[in-house]
Amino acid sequence: MFERYEAGERAVLVHLNFSREGEREDLEELHLLVSSAGVSACGVVTGARSSPHPKYFCGAGKAEEIAALVQAEQADVVIFNHALSPAQERNLEAIFQCRVLDRTGLILDIFAQRARTHEGKLQVELAQLRHLSTRLIRGWTHLERQKGGIGLRGPGETQLETDRRLLRERIKTILRRLEKVEKQREQGRRSRQRREIPTVSLVGYTNAGKSTLFNLVTDSGVYAADQLFATLDPTLRRIEIDEVGPTILADTVGFIRHLPHDLVAAFKATLQETRQADLLLHVVDASDERAGENIEEVQKVLKEIEADDIPQLLVYNKVDLLEDAEPRIDRDDTGRPVRVWVSAQENRGQPQLFRALSDLLGRQIVELSLKLPPSEQRWVNVFFELSAVKSSQYDDEGNCLMKIVLPEPEWLRQLKASQGRLSDFIIH
Q1: SS3 (DSSP) at 8
Q2: Which of the listed CATH numbers 3.40.50.300, 3.90.1140.10, 3.30.365.10, 3.30.160.20 matches domain 197-361?
Q3: What residues contact residue 276 under an 8 Å CB cut-off, 6+ apart?
Q4: Do the domains 197-361 and 10-101 match in fold?
Q5: Which positions make up the binding site for GTP?
Q6: pTM over 0.85
Q7: Where is the Hflx-type G domain (predicted)?
Q8: Phi and psi dihedrals of 7, rounded to 5?
């Protein structure tokens, strides 16, 4: 369908340092991404610019330097540690005479390799098609030609228009299928809410050890490896916590700085598990010197998917790689656990983690009395749907007097949805 150079196994990596903080990337992370994609780096070109070159991103002189290295090393692909525009990609391919891949394309490629379930594969294909649709425009000159020849003459469409239409139709099909999956997930979540089973979701930077921790806590065999994006498909398991009872633990996809928007959109169903959780276990690689930056990046993605208001417990993993570090719980002034130090690899810190979960989930039930006027009837329906109503009756003026019992995160969610209005109806 597309006349493009085939990507191969030998790659030249390009990393530029920009003066603006928001455009900076990490060279070490690029090496990790490339090795996760199964590609071997045969050369690295670095440079510094104040801003990207509009035509070649890296500048004409730097592009010639990269082209010479590609020729010398017989490289199959040039991978940029940055997001390139379709025009920049095309211009660079003309100079290098090989395939050019940007950071987003590389992450999409890794996701395509890792997807295991039907849902995961659909989500990756959706992200790839959305990424590709922007690259059809002016990307390939042959696509502008009118189709011709016996059996190929269409209703006056150019090849480019046909390809765009096929892409749009495929995207619509995938969205319909994902909607079906989302409805099934929603039913599962509703039945858990009715049974008042709390959900705990693992989040964190990619390769922080979430799946290893998940396997330790749930005694299951989820795929875990020392590579970026080992987990794509959400996995749910039931665990028992003292003073709380049955709890659902969800393992989710890892986050990364400048996570492509197409991916965030495509993995909406997966990330929904995070948005609907009662507690987030934010797993941090304690041995990583950029742990602080990684925490900030995760918080940015959580804000993007509107999950930043859910209570969090920081789980510092890999303490076996730190000197004199032992599993422990750090608490704030009120005695609430805020950090747990564990080593999932060496099976250390599990009792401390369960104790912290018991402390946090055990006291997260909110009991309130509300007086809702007739104009706020929709909230009566909402609380009944959540199976949160303990008792309800109407007074002579049509106000609904109800007692509700529900998990604190759910109350905070509804409070946010009402823009704080619900707090006006609390009977003190």
Answers
A1: coil
A2: 3.40.50.300
A3: 189, 199
A4: yes
A5: 204-211, 229-233, 251-254, 317-320, 343-345
A6: no
A7: 198-365
A8: -80, 145
77-80 β-sheet, strand order: 40-49, 10-18, 77-80, 99-101
Starting at the edge strand that comes first in sequence, how are the strands of the sheet with 312-317 ordered? Answer: 235-241, 245-251, 199-204, 279-285, 312-317, 337-341, 328-331
Binding site residue list: 204-211, 229-233, 251-254, 317-320, 343-345
In this prediction, residue 340 carries a pLDDT of 93
Partners of 420 in the beta sheet?
none
Q: In angstroms, how far apart are the furthest CA atoms of the chain?
A: 87
CB-count exposure of residue 53 (10 Å: 0-12, 13-18, 19+): middle
The class level of CATH for 10-101 reads alpha beta
Please report, in range form, the residues annotated as the binding site for Mg(2+): 211, 231
Burial classification of residue 187, based on how many CB atoms lie within 10 Å of its CB (0-12 exposed, 13-18 middle, 19 or more buried): exposed
CA dist 286 and 292 (Å) reads: 10
28: Cβ contacts below 8 Å, ≥ 6 apart:
none
Task: Provide the 3-class DSSP secondary structure of residue 232.
Answer: coil
The Cα–Cα gap between 203 and 224 comes to 15
Length of the chain counted residue by residue: 428
Identity (one letter) of the amino acid at 19?
S
The CATH code that applies to domain 365-427 is 3.30.70.240
Measured from the Cβ of residue 377, the count of other Cβ atoms closer than 10 Å reads 12
Total Cβ atoms within 10 A of residue 195: 10
Average pLDDT over residues 125-144: 64
Q: What is the pLDDT of residues 345-372, one digit of tens each?
A: 888 888 899 888 888 887 567 788 999 9
In contact, 34 and 106? CB cutoff 8 Å: yes
Given a contact cutoff of 8 angstroms between Cβ atoms, the answer to whether 91 and 222 are in contact is no
Nearest to 213 by CA among 353, 36, 338: 353
